[in-house]
Every structure is written in C-alpha cells, then in structure tokens.
User: Fold this.
Amino acid sequence: MEYRELEIPGVWLLTPRRHGDARGYFAETYRKAEFDAATGRTVEFVQDNESTSSGGVLRGLHFQRGASAQAKLVRVIEGTVVDVALDLRRHSPTFGRHVMVTLDDTRGEMLFIPRGFAHGFLVLSTRARFLYKVDNYYDPAAEVSLRFDDPDVAICWPEVDFPLNLSPKDLKGLSWSQLIDNNLTYDF
Assistant:
C-alpha cells in the first residue's frame, strides 16, 4: 500500500498494490498495523457501509456531532466519484478548507478522513458503488448536513453529464454561518 498525506494534515490518499494477470487482480485494501504505522494514528473501525448511486447524485456534506464524530476510510468499487473532505476542526490551521480527490474503480485509491471533517461525494459515472469504514457507530440524532453549494465553503464541484440529484435533507443543509453560529464545529 502506498500512503500519501494530502494538503490538509491527517487526510490521506491510499493506493493499494494490485497484483493482476489475465484472470483479474488481487489487492489488499486494509491492514490495521500498516495503516496505523503509516498514518501515525490508531483507528478502530467498527462499522462498514455501502451505497449505490446513479450519475449526478451528490451526497453530503455530512458529519456527526460531538462524541458521535467519525473517521472514515472510503473507496469506490464501481464507477467514479469526486470526493470532498472539509475541515471543521476549529483550532486547525486548515479550518474551513477542503480537499477534493477523484476516486474510481480503476485505480482503487482510498481516502482516509479523520474525525472533525464533513464529507461528501458527487457521482461522475452512470452508477457508483461506494464503500466506507467508520470508527464510530452511526447516530442519526447526531447527523448534520452542510450545504454542498455554500458560497463561504466555495467547493468547485465539477460539471457532470447528469442532472444533480440531492436528498431533501441535503437540499436543506445548514449554511456555513449557521454551522458557526450554532457551534457545530469540532474543538479538536
């Protein structure tokens, strides 16, 4: 596995080594001891999630408040998405900044997003299957949605060949100023 820390410290792009031949390929996608050593963190993943989405679906930006915060290791096993992690750690020098990467089933790269970030993705292909490991159980009462198109966050989502498709919850997401005014950022 190759590990590369991105522009925001703590956010990592992981590239598994694929061993292939005419039959296909094999890749190890996670090894705890190696992950902990490479990233300098100890993460205990407790839940795996999977979603399927059609082209133009935008999910996010989501996060869980307080003690329900989650670190995520995300990857795409079918299709292509653009994935975004937004730093909500109030005392971070990168507070309010985001990273954006393209994840697809061809390269098999994964994105590690530590606790203290909002996360979202936009499906660029006709269909996408998205997998993610999390280090804390899902708590619907702690979930928050931040507007994907808030001008203060200024994410430049790419154009897609499909109409944008968002859930009602995401369309009603909080603005950046509401997030700040309601003290919904992280204190770590």
Remarks:
- The first strand starts at residue 2 and ends at 5.
- The CA atoms of residues 88 and 185 lie 5 Å apart.
- The first helix runs from residue 32 to 39.
- The helical segments are 32-39, 168-171, 176-181.
